[in-house]
Amino acid sequence: MSGAVSIGLDLGAGKCCVASVRAGAVTVLPNAHGDKTTPSFVAFTDSRSLVGSDVRDQAALSPENTFYGVKTVIGRSCKKIQKNELAYITGNEVRTGEIFMMNLLPEFLITEKGSAAFKIEYRNKELMLHAEEITALLIAKMKSVAEDDIGSPVTNAVITVPVNFSNAQRQATLDAARIAGLKNVTLINSTTAAAIAYWDQHPREKDCVAVVDFGASSLSFAILSIDNGTVKVLEAYGGLAVSGNRIDFCMMRAIVTKFQEKHGKSFEESPGALVRLRTAMEKLKFNLTLLTSYVLQVDSLSHGIDFTTTFSRQEMEESCQSQFEILGNALRRWAKLKNWVKVRTIVLVGGSTRIPTVESLIAKTLRKPLDHSLNKDEAVACGAALRAAELCCSTPREVQEVLSRRVWFEADAENFDLA
Ligand SMILES: Nc1ncnc2c1ncn2[C@@H]1O[C@H](COP(=O)(O)OP(=O)(O)OP(=O)(O)O)[C@@H](O)[C@H]1O
Ligand SMILES: [Mg+2]
Q: Which domain of life is it from (predicted)?
């Protein structure tokens, strides 16, 4: 990677964040709304594509043309995803196997290679788009956010991926970056980026930390050491079996049951209703991070009924019990890793680490000091930006990443493939 201007891009399933090193300090670059993160929503109108919060806020109006969570399908075989994750709301039931993201994505065909090709209406034509092309629109948007802030073209980037991303998922991400016009791109695990951001704030000659990154679509964990400037990933695990989106789905299931009990009607599973419900779940979840109980209101949830109910943190814990079990099992395994004794502190990043039950489960199971000093939404982008700036200089610090490792997390008798 060469050239002076470079960015670090946290390409999240839920939001994107871009940062750059300027005058020696790492800065998060805000979008045109002044927000430091941009929701990972892409939509197509008759004449153009749109990205970000405007799309999120109108998602229920045109769910057939709105993409959220494309990261969960990029570089993957749909057949495998369907086998692992296909599930749906049927009447009063959300089957666990999990409803999953594919139900919230627009209509798609499965290509001969097994990947998804999404059907969209654009400029009065029907187009087939691949996850790489939709992801490219997200990347291009973040590139232009950076260019507007920096005031010059950007072609060098470090982009973050979850530790469990396969080679195919990594290659597809690189393809998307190329389509978006980035020329020199390096991928880095989100946990490695977070560790780099941590050392930038807490420099020690020798250190060993664990990073937990719990986001919208994935959970990543790594133990990393730094020794004389060399960052080394000692172990890294992660997967999709537990995630913020899945927690939303578990809560959706509980709300659908409440709706049925209160109104004696089945839940009409229209794409618009699913989007409204999902959006309401995220708001409910955010509020239950701060409050122990919250009054949920969803306009026209089903049969035109405006639904109101009280939902408590305890109800959230009960409805998401399977998710917390998977998380607990993963944490117990990590606490037995051979490098665990070397870990001094646990760095928490990713929005889902804010959930009180998640934080207390991590504290109780891992029993080492938790570090909250990093901004949970921005640290990964900052670490990537620091790495990008290093790669542009003549003597970059060495970063040794391990190949992604996948594990099977167990919940009850069921196994979830994290791939
Ligand atoms: N205050 C909060 N309370 C509960 N959950 C939260 C809070 N803030 C964010 N989240 C959840 O965190 C998740 C987003 O986290 P984050 O932004 O780290 O994910 P991401 O980087 O987009 O996704 P990924 O890393 O999986 O690709 C979402 O599921 C969101 O609902
Ligand atoms: Mg993330």
A: Eukaryota
